[in-house]
Design brief:
CATH class: Alpha Beta
Strand order of the largest sheet: 5-4-3-6-7-8-9
CATH architecture: 3-Layer(aba) Sandwich
Distance between the termini: 42 Å
Order of helices and strands: HHHEEHEHEHEEHEEE
Helix content: 25-40%
CATH superfamily: Vaccinia Virus protein VP39
Number of helices: 7
CATH topology: Rossmann fold
Length: 246
């Protein structure tokens, strides 16, 4: 994100040097991401042009998406397109969501540093990585063995220690780790699974695409109040791969 900050000429001159110093320090503190340098400008442009410009304003979400190397969550043949505004294939008929959708779904959950998050549909692991920058714990369920193994390896290589990925049917959630402060579902189902609603903590938030593969899909935002009452509403038309299993 490029921001013009009122101030003295000396401050304006110093700003680029501070940004460069921060990038160097970040690479030094995250050796696994040192090779990420060629993509820093592309990632900054992605956040500025596709996410912030389209209305995503939470500074923590923007910072997380500037930090997470999206290109490392796709195959080498697609890395040149990793920061473009569309989904990309990740194998097994699945995709990594376009950047704006990741930002939108993350922001609406209002994640806090103490939150425990459930993700249904790990896919590449990118959404889990973004959430892990904001929350205390992320538990992610992926039904496809190959994607579960690959995303687990990618997240580990990048140093994410607060994400746990398991292979399984996410329709049923992860009961042993419930309740969750937030639940994010990255594949479309015909209805909201009752098991996920049960595993959502009172005061919790959930976002899920709902609709069939040949029907209109909408992101549905669900909230459970302190007494356990549930409210929900459509917030954005979308097109997601379908929820497998169950």
């Amino acid at each position: 994100m490029e921001t013009t900050i009122p101030g003295t000429e000396a401050m304006n001159v110093a700003t680029p040097f501070l940004a460069i110093a921060a990038a160097v320090l970040s690479a030094a503190l995250h050796p696994a991401m040192a090779a990420d340098d060629p993509y820093l400008q592309k990632r900054a442009a992605m956040v500025r042009n596709q996410i912030e410009r389209e209305g995503i304003s939470d500074p923590r979400v923007l910072a997380a998406m500037r930090d997470v190397p999206r290109h490392l969550f796709v195959s080498p043949s697609f890395r040149a397109k990793a920061y473009e505004p569309f989904p990309l294939p990740i194998g097994e008929g699945q995709t990594i969501s376009q950047p704006y959708i990741v930002g939108f779904m993350t922001q609406i959950l209002r994640l806090k540093e103490t939150d425990r998050v459930l993700e249904v549909g790990t896919g590449s692991g990118y959404q889990a990585a973004v959430a892990a920058k904001l929350a205390a714990e992320v538990y992610s369920v992926e039904i496809l063995d190959s994607l579960a193994a690959r995303s687990r390896r990618t997240l580990s290589d990048l140093g994410f220690r607060n994400v746990v990925v398991r292979q399984g049917d996410g329709y049923y959630g992860w009961e042993e780790k419930a309740p969750f402060d937030a639940i994010i579902v990255t594949c479309a189902g015909g209805h909201i699974p009752p098991s996920l609603l049960r595993q959502l903590r009172n005061g919790g938030r959930m976002i899920m695409p709902v609709g069939g593969p040949f029907m209109t899909q909408n992101l549905v935002f669900i909230e459970k109040d302190a007494r356990g009452s549930i409210t929900h509403g459509n917030v954005l038309p979308v097109a997601f791969v379908r929820l497998l299993g169950h």
